[in-house]
Amino acid sequence: MKKKTFYIESLGCKVNQYESDGIAAQLEAHGFSRAGKGSPADICIVNTCAVTARAGMQSRQETRKLIREHPDATVIVTGCHAQTDPEQFKKISGVDHIVCHQDKILIPAYLTREPPEKNLFEFEFRKPEYGNASRFLGFDRPVYGKMTRAYLKIQDGCNQFCTYCIIPYARGASVSMPFDQVMAHVSGLNRQGFKEVILTGIHTGLYGLDLTPETSLTELVKTLDEKQPVDQIRISSIEPHEITDDLIHLARPGHILCDHFHIPLQAGDNGILSRMKRPYSVEQFSEVIHSIHGTLPHAGIGLDVIMGFPGETDKAFENTYKLVADLPVSYLHVFPYSPRKGTPAWHFTPKVPSGTAKKRAALMRELGAQKHQDFITSNQGRILKGLIQNQRDRRTGLLKAVTTNYLTVLIKNEKDAHGNPDSLKGQIVNLKYDQCSDGNGLIGNIVLPPLEHKDS
């Protein structure tokens, strides 16, 4: 009997990628073979994204492309865009199944039933769950993926309902992976050779608030720090008001948490923050950033910023620009505002012309590039801890490392440090760079001082 093949395309965030990797692993465990891009496949799965209008468009484009390339395949669409706007996919000829978010991880179970061709999906499309009906949707086994650093989804959903965001309508209320399961998955990833695990979620800072007994992200990281089931932990993204002093202290040298915080700012004007329904002020945000920097002066601090939100005047933009310019941050992710039908901000006025939003975004990206260069300069010559990646740099062929504070450094002395350079892949090393750039990025060397151990 011919082994069935599948292809899965994941768009959008790391949570989507994690879920796609988990679905793929389950299918492979049942004897399915994963097809490469462009190879024939019996089943095509599209895990869609809805965070922006462009992401939704790309999700539909990818679906149509796979239908053209695999005319005889069973095509399954799931993910946030399929959840918030299933009618868009019902219009696409060739889509066989639209699977709601709650049933996403059940796709492999239905595909592997006997006989598989009969009643492939018996469940019906449902809206996201809220309140007591909400439950965490996870995988029984750790999800490995293909990256050097493993992702672990510990939280899903969101209770914030920012006025511009469609995602709570796609994923429902905040739910958390049970505490003991997090510990088991992290330990399992460590046994598979992963040195770093990235804790991720839709609103990761809400972790534990729905569990019984109630806990928190800080308490989880404290326990990870005490038990050391893996070498290092990174948090993918966290809201400013959820960064506690204890959490910052857990990122000091010798502790498990990486000194890297990715924090959504979105706007640096109190009026716009209020319209966005963001639960902090400019002053509170600034205090958090300075608190991180005061304890960890070389920490990587990244910000998300939205340009062109309805009502953003020239003065409001100037306020955001000045705030970011004055803050000790290391990089920016800048997005022009994308109207999402179904959110309150869809109806907000006055609208900011798209040309104005793009100009503001360009100016903010220039500021971000300067911030990043300043951060690179401030770390030059310092001994940093970095994880050697499994994939070499494509342009130079050199090994590359991602440091705890989120810099990528190419390693030029790999053969001098070890007889077999490939043995370094997936390992944590001390390194430093003296050469800021040669057109290919940061160039550095592995250095010999031992890695710091956990504080007693």
Automatic annotation (TrEMBL):
Residues covered by the MTTase N-terminal domain: 4-116
Keyword ATP-binding: no
GO molecular function per UniProt: 4 iron, 4 sulfur cluster binding; metal ion binding; tRNA (N(6)-L-threonylcarbamoyladenosine(37)-C(2))-methylthiotransferase activity
Cofactor(s) essential for the protein: [4Fe-4S] cluster
Keywords from the UniProt entry: 4Fe-4S, Iron, Iron-sulfur, Metal-binding, S-adenosyl-L-methionine, Transferase
Xref: InterPro entries: Elp3/MiaA/NifB-like_rSAM, Methylthiotransferase, Methylthiotransferase_CS, Methylthiotransferase_N, Methylthiotransferase_N_sf, MiaB-like_bact, rSAM, rSAM_horseshoe
Residues of the Radical SAM core domain: 144-374
Membrane spanning stretches: none
Keyword Transferase found: yes
This protein's name: tRNA (N(6)-L-threonylcarbamoyladenosine(37)-C(2))-methylthiotransferase MtaB
Annotated organism of origin: Desulfobacter latus
